[in-house]
Design goal:
By secondary structure, this protein is an alpha+beta fold. The chain is built from three helices and ten strands; from the N terminus they run E-E-H-H-E-E-E-E-H-E-E-E-E.
Length: about 130
């Protein structure tokens, strides 16, 4: 059996951490080692590390507490212009076809319903996969 989880990108804005699960999946990493050793999701105790890999989608954490999980059918792209991340604006703007936000590291990421260029990564709303061979 092969265990596969999405790659996770972590973005920070003040006390918020936004995790975005993106494709392609990977078959190595800390979460996979935890799951391989016990085959129990409950052994993965760090929500910030494990939840995005196991459940996929976009998570918003306040410190290490989960505020929300969002399924977004679209892509994560690098941007050139965006507004400062705000939780309420983020939820509202994800209803649009394209929205961009600036994070603490100065990088700008856009959430798009359509692939804008080949560098855009598909958001993975599935998470953990078991492949039986």
């Amino acid at each position: 059996m092969i265990i596969s989880v999405p790659d996770v990108i972590y973005l920070h804005s003040g006390e918020y951490t936004i995790s975005i699960s993106v494709l392609p999946t990977k078959t190595e990493g800390e979460v996979i080692e935890i799951l391989k050793s016990t085959m129990r999701i409950s052994e993965c105790k760090d929500k910030l590390l494990c939840y995005p890999s196991i459940f996929g989608g976009i998570f918003i954490f306040l410190r290490k507490s989960i505020l929300s999980r969002i399924e977004f059918d679209g892509y994560l792209c690098q941007g050139k212009d965006g507004e400062l991340f705000d939780v309420n604006k983020f939820h509202e703007n994800l209803k649009h076809d394209f929205s961009c936000f600036r994070f603490d590291d100065g990088k700008i990421y856009c959430f798009s319903r359509a692939r804008k260029d080949k560098e855009c990564k598909p958001i993975d709303n599935i998470g953990l996969r078991f492949i039986v061979d």
